[in-house]
UniProtKB/TrEMBL annotation:
Its EC number is 1.2.1.-. The keyword Secreted does not apply. Pfam families: Aldedh (PF00171). Residues 26-476 form the Aldehyde dehydrogenase domain. Coiled coil: none annotated. GO terms for molecular function: oxidoreductase activity. It comes from Virgibacillus dokdonensis. Keywords: Oxidoreductase. InterPro entries: Ald_DH/histidinol_DH (IPR016161), Ald_DH_C (IPR016163), Ald_DH_CS_CYS (IPR016160), Ald_DH_N (IPR016162), Aldehyde_DH_dom (IPR015590), Aldehyde_DH_Superfamily (IPR050740). This is NAD-dependent succinate-semialdehyde dehydrogenase. The keyword Oxidoreductase applies.
Length: 482
């Protein structure tokens, strides 16, 4: 499907020839084998990409919302028609099971479609003035050129979640995908090309993250940086972007608690907790990281989890029936292993799994789905994001206690509550210090709703009309009357 080298830098509507000798090899995490290699570009290419985006900005931003929408519709159709092939590529570079990968591509399509619909709805306001001598109008305009930096855990949907609202708003962009997963980004650019996106409107640069990032941060014409990734890198971007008071939209780490109340539908809650924990092998920022179960049902709940987990099938995501793929790389596997070891040293009991999974012909980056009990607050797993398939379970006895524990983290992205009692659901949701609360629901990310965290989980929202507002500035026009 791929040659040994794949062009991956797209500037001003052209795929660039970059020094192939410096190419970066892309590996399939399931097998550890090379798929292809891509360009290792840096500051120079990023400057060119920013320049192209700047040139394209007047052309793109002056188009009507309807015109921008027709491009986004076309791109959504092309992507949907190609979802199976794109899903295959995504699984190959990222590792998630094919069904999840195709689901992600279809989710990515939904962002294009939703923002095609929103592109025409950039309403302004007419404000009643406090004096008859004035009339006040507020309009929204695109911020200008934006930089987008995306992670490897959702190589397709994180790109359209950022670019679709940016394009709908009238911005032009420079995209830097994660070094582990550039192939889905390349395919999305090809779709944009086929959909007739004018040259320079979206530019793609792969390579040296720091050098590319530095250009995006220090170029004063890049007005906004939208980033999904770790809190550590997010903080670095905040610091470095201060010089030009750049706008930032940051989706950072999480440490999601799931709380199971005694009146929950336990079988349904167990399935949902597992879906939340083991989706993408625990490698999402909204995956359950800590599970709190009421003491009266905790033993039964752990049994239910074990029964369901025993049906999971580990393997290459491209193989039929695989439900758990590899972790992205050795470093990720070591982190998971470290968290389990640390917990066990401090007294945790392994209820299920607990070690790596090995099979001939597969890479070493697999870890068995794991459940831990006898958890204490001093364990790393209770504070750091594991980003892997480990579920620590703790009993709780009352509502106030569990809310305090759930909020005891610097993160504040997603939290989940399982109960059949509406009053409990509302009371607890109100008190959870999180940007997103799922009540009997673990898939809250959807194009029509705002997604984003509080505390050190980020700034701003993606999705919904809120997501498009991030890419626009409000302008007041104050008319003095004759
Ligand atoms: P992870 O640890 O999950 O890979 P990162 O925050 O390191 O998360 O990476 C998310 C994205 O941020 C990737 O595209 C990565 O290349 C990029 N990135 C990492 N460091 C920098 C940096 N100094 N400047 C700009 N982008 C960076």
């Amino acid at each position: 499907m791929f040659n040994t080298y794949t062009k991956s830098v797209f500037i001003d509507g052209e795929w660039q020839d970059i020094n192939e000798k410096l190419a970066e090899v892309i590996y399939n995490p399931a097998t550890g084998k090379a798929i292809t290699s891509v360009a290792y570009a840096g500051a120079e290419e990023t400057k060119q990409a920013i320049h192209a985006a700047l040139q394209a900005f007047p052309i793109w931003s002056e188009k009507t919302g309807r015109e921008r929408a027709s491009f986004l519709y076309k791109a959504s159709q092309l992507m949907l028609e190609d979802a199976e092939r794109l899903g295959n590529i995504l699984t190959m570079e990222q590792g998630k099971p094919l069904r999840e990968a195709v689901g992600e591509v279809k989710g990515a399509v939904q962002f294009l479609l939703w923002y095609a619909e929103e592109a025409s709805r950039n309403y302004g306001e007419w404000l009643p003035s406090s004096t008859n001598a004035k009339r006040l109008v507020v309009m929204s305009q695109p911020v200008g050129v934006i930089g987008a930096i995306t992670p490897w855990n959702f190589p397709s949907s994180m790109i359209t979640r950022k670019l679709a609202p940016a394009l709908a708003a009238g911005c032009t962009a420079v995209l830097k995908p994660a070094p582990e997963t550039p192939l889905s980004a390349i395919e999305i650019m090809k779709i944009f090309e086929r959909a007739g996106l004018p040259k320079g409107v979206v530019n793609l640069v792969t390579g040296d993250a720091e050098a590319i990032g530095k250009q995006l941060l220090t170029h004063k014409e890049v007005r906004l940086l939208t980033f999904t990734g770790s809190t550590a890198v997010g903080k670095h971007l905040m610091r470095e972007s201060a010089e030009h008071v750049k706008k930032l939209s940051l989706e950072l780490g999480g440490h999601a608690p799931s709380i199971v109340f005694p009146d929950a539908n336990l079988a349904k809650a167990a399935s949902l907790v597992l879906a939340s924990k083991f989706r993408n092998n625990g490698q999402t920022c909204i995956c359950t990281n800590r599970l709190f179960v009421h003491e009266s049902v905790v033993a039964d709940f752990i049994q239910l989890l074990k029964q369901k987990i025993s049906k999971f099938q580990i393997g290459d995501g491209l193989e039929d029936g695989t439900t758990i793929g590899p972790l992205i790389n050795e470093q990720a596997c070591k982190k998971v292993e470290g968290h389990v070891q640390n917990a066990v040293e401090k007294g945790a009991v392994i209820e299920y799994g607990g070690e790596r999974w090995h099979k001939q012909g597969f890479s070493h980056c697999y870890f068995n789905p794991t459940i831990l009990s006898n958890i204490t607050e001093d364990m790393k797993i209770m504070h750091e994001e594991t980003f892997g398939p480990v579920l620590p379970v703790q009993p709780f006895s009352d509502e106030t206690e569990v809310i305090t524990k759930a909020n005891d983290t610097d993160y504040g992205l997603a939290a989940y509550v399982f109960t059949e009692n509406t009053s409990t659901a509302i009371r607890v949701s109100e008190k959870l210090d999180y940007g997103i609360v799922g009540v009997n629901d673990v898939f809250p990310a959807t194009p029509e709703a705002p997604f984003g965290g509080v505390k050190q989980s980020g700034l701003g929202k993606e999705g919904g009309h809120h997501g498009m507002e991030e890419f626009m500035e409000k302008k007041l026009i104050s008319f003095g009357m004759n």
